[in-house]
Write a structure and sequence with these properties.
alpha/beta, Rossmann fold, two-stranded antiparallel sheet, globular
Length: 297
């Protein structure tokens, strides 16, 4: 995280999950108050990537900002790159945000990239329980463009072939321990050379994950594209896309949100930014989110 682009002045905290796992998070702003945004990172990143966004929000408003390191990621060193199950992933999130209701009057659950889909699932799980006040998604990956779809397909095919060959040769394979490479490059997140250097040099970024994690990611992706959006009740929804996104099919996802969100019509914005909107347009992103949060009662 040593980078002139990120001045990470967050407070580091921990939350013990119901199974004893210690989850880490970064907090910008007050530890209690009126509003807090809780954001989930994407598949290979971590809470530190949200520093520009968190700092922009807390500099321009009284809103607190928490970024949770998802299990096996970031500052969570235990079982790095491994997710045991889809249910465990969602339980980690719902228990954390439920705890925050004792500290803040309104909890706004957010997610960037794949974290947006996980946030949507968790929001649906908590619908009607007066735990969260809104759902905010940035570059949500409900649908990928053709190029990235091909990358994923070919990468998973290669993993399957290697695993099959190892089994044929009699090698022992363990889905929880045999790590497989993640097919993402710095250029998939940003076109800015300095930010690309940041991504490439980041030693907390996941470059390999377990086979079980790949399966859990797929289960969560399928679940998020099911009835989740229709189960949000009257929860206000904000979605922000980067118009230069190289991974997400923005128009398809925006249409999906309009069609499937059964409550109030989602608020949708397109910013002139790549997939990592918070890298290059943190202040504009923060401004849109702050304005949205002000409308949530």
């Amino acid at each position: 995280m040593n980078s002139p682009l990120v001045h990470d002045e967050a407070v580091i905290g921990t939350h013990r999950q119901s199974d004893g796992y210690e989850s880490h998070f970064r907090r910008w702003g007050a530890e209690r108050g009126e509003d807090v945004i809780v954001i989930l990172h994407g598949g290979v990143s971590h809470s530190g990537w949200q520093a520009p966004f968190g700092e922009a929000v807390t500099t321009a408003s009284d809103i607190s900002f928490l970024a949770l390191d998802r299990r096996g990621s970031g500052l969570n060193r235990a079982a790095r790159g491994h997710l045991p199950s889809a249910d465990r992933e969602i339980e980690d999130v719902t228990s954390f945000v439920t705890l925050l209701t004792g500290l803040f009057r309104k909890v706004h659950l957010a997610g960037w990239c794949f974290g947006g889909q996980i946030a949507a699932i968790a929001a649906a799980e908590l619908a009607g329980q007066n735990v969260i006040s809104s759902l905010i998604m940035v570059s949500p990956g409900f649908a990928f463009n053709e190029r990235y779809g091909d990358v994923l397909r070919l990468s998973m095919q290669a993993v399957a072939e290697v695993t099959e060959e190892l089994v044929r040769l009699g090698a022992k394979t363990t889905p929880d321990l045999d790590f497989v490479p993640v097919p993402l490059q710095a250029t998939d997140f940003t076109a800015d050379a300095q930010w690309q250097e940041f991504v490439d040099a980041d030693d907390l970024r996941l470059r390999k994950v377990s086979q079980t994690t790949v399966a859990v990611w797929e289960q969560l992706a399928v679940r998020s594209r099911g009835t989740v959006l229709a189960e949000l009740g009257n929860l206000p929804v904000l979605a922000i896309f980067g118009s230069r996104d190289r991974l997400v099919d923005n128009e398809k996802v925006a249409s999906m949100l309009v069609a499937k969100v059964a409550g109030p019509a989602p608020t949708i914005y397109f910013l002139d930014a790549p997939h990592a909107v918070h890298f290059e347009e943190a202040e504009e992103l923060a401004g849109r989110v702050i304005d949205f949060v002000a409308t949530v009662r």
